[in-house]
Amino acid sequence: MSPFLREVEIPWREHIVVMIRVDRDPGGLVTAVAPVVVRGGGYWVGWPGIHLENPDELIPESDPADRTPTAGLRSDKVRAVHVDPKVFDSYYNGCCNNTFWPLFHSMPDRASFSAEHWKNYYTVNKEFAQKTLSALAEVSKDQSPEAGPPLVWVHDYHLMLASNWIRQGAEEMNLRCKLGFFLHIPFPPWDIFRLFPWSDEVLQGMLGCDMVGFHIQDYCLNFVDCCQRRLGCRVDRKNMLVEHGGRTVRVRPLPIGIPFDRFVLLAQSAPKVISSSTKIVLGVDRLDYTKGLVHRLKAFEMLLEKHPEHLEKVTLLQICVPSRTDVKEYQELKEEMDQLVGRINGRFTTPNWSPIRYIYGCVSQDELAAFYRDAAVALVTPLRDGMNLVAKEFVACQINEPPGVLIVSPFAGAGEMMHEALICNPYEIGAAAEVIHRALTMPEDERQLRMNYLRRREKINDVNFWMRSFLKAMGSLIYEDGEETLP
Ligand code: GDG
C-alpha cells in the first residue's frame, strides 16, 4: 500500500459542534449529545417534528408541541429545517423507511425503489446541507482565527447525501469544517447494497466526511468493500481507510452505549409494577419486522409445548411500541401479532394464568426500568439490528440479586459484544425455545457471573464514552484528555 493512504492526526483544541439529525424522539442520545453542542457553542440542525404554517417561525421551547430533540439548547442555536409536507412524506416514509430501512437490514424484498422518493431524499438532504452551511457561517463569524475548524456531526440513514454538499459548499464559501457521520443501523454487504440503483451517490455522499462511524467492525468492512467495488476507491482494510477524491476517509467501529448510571438510578427508585408471581420473560421493541417478534412468539409457544413444567410458572411480557402505523406492512405485522398472541393464549391459558401479556403502546421510563429490573429473562432477538439499546438498558437495570439472564441475537450489533449473554438464532425456533429454557433454569452463580461481566462492560462503555470516542476518532477532544466526564 502506498504511503498516500495515511492517517493524519488533526490537532484540534477548540471546537464548535454542529449536529444534524432528523428524528423527532428525544432519547438517550440527545441527552448525551446536546450538552456537548451547548459547551462547544454549537448549533443543532434538525427537523422540528411538525410542519409549520409559517416556516420562518421558530417554535418556542416552552411550547408543548415542540418535539425538536434539542432540550437544553437555546432556540437561537437551533436551525429547524422545514420541508413541504408532501416532499417530506416521500423522503421520510418513502425513501428512508421503505427503501433504506429494509435494504440496510438485509431485507431487500421489503424494499421499494422509486425515482420519485429518491428525488425527494435528494431535495431534503440538500435542504439540511444548506441550513448547516448557514449555521457554519454564523459559527465562523464568532471564531478566533487560531481555533480549530468547527466540527459537523451528521446522523443516520436519513442524511447520507448531506455531507458531500456541506463539504463542497464550505469550500466555495471559504468556511473551514471537519465532518463526521454516524450510521445507527447496519451497513449491508455489497451484494445487498448494490441493489440500490443510486448506490454510488450514497457512497459519495458519505465519503464527503472525514470520518464515517458504524456500530461494529462488520459494518465498517461492508462499507469499505462497497467503496472499493462500486466506486473503485483504493482502500486499506487494516487501518480502515478509504481514499476518495484525493482525500483519505477514516472508517471506525464505534459501538454506541447507554446512559448507564441514569438507568441504574431509575431502577433503584422505580416502584414495583409487576404483581404476578410467575417469572417474567421480557421483550421490549418497536413493532417492526426487523425485531423478530413473530419468531419470538413462536419460540415461546414451542417452549411451553416442549417444557410443560413452565406452564403457569412463566409469563412472556411483550411491550410493542407502535411504529410507522400508516405503513401497510406495519399494519399487517400488528394484525399478525394480535392473531398469534390470541392463538397462543387461547391454547395455553388456565383460569389463573395466561402465557402472554401483550402491551401495544408506550410505557414510561420508570415503568420500563421496573420491568427491566424485575424480569427473569430479557429476549432481545431481532432478525437484524444495528446495535439494540434494550439489551444494554436491561443489564443496567439488573440490580436485584441474583440477577436475570439476557438472551441476544447474533444479528444485532449488541450480540457481537455482549459475549456473556446467551446467544440465540431467532430463525431457529426450536433452538430458541431451548435457549429460553436454559435461561429459566440457569443456576444462580452462573447468572451472577455473566451479569457482572455484562454490567461492568456497559458501565464503562456508556454513551459518554461513545461520544468521547467519536470526537477522539475525529482527531478532536472537546475536553482535555485527563478529564473523565462529560456533563
Ligand atoms: C436505532 C437502531 C440502535 C422502547 N419501548 C419503550 C421505550 N423504548 C426505548 C428503549 C430504547 C429505544 O426505545 C429502542 O432502541 P433500539 O436500539 O432497540 O432500537 P431503534 O429505535 O431501532 O434504534 C438500533 C439505535 O438506533 C441507537 O444507535 O441501537 O439498532 O435501529 O432506548 O428504551 N422507551 C419508553 N417506553 C417504551 O415503551 N420510555
Automatic annotation (TrEMBL):
GO biological process, one term: trehalose biosynthetic process
One GO cellular component term noted in the UniProt record for this chain: cytosol
Top-level taxon in the UniProt lineage: Eukaryota
Entry GO MF terms: alpha,alpha-trehalose-phosphate synthase (UDP-forming) activity; trehalose-phosphatase activity
Family: In the C-terminal section; belongs to the trehalose phosphatase family.
Record protein name field: Bifunctional trehalose-6-phosphate synthase/phosphatase
UniProt organism field: Frankliniella fusca
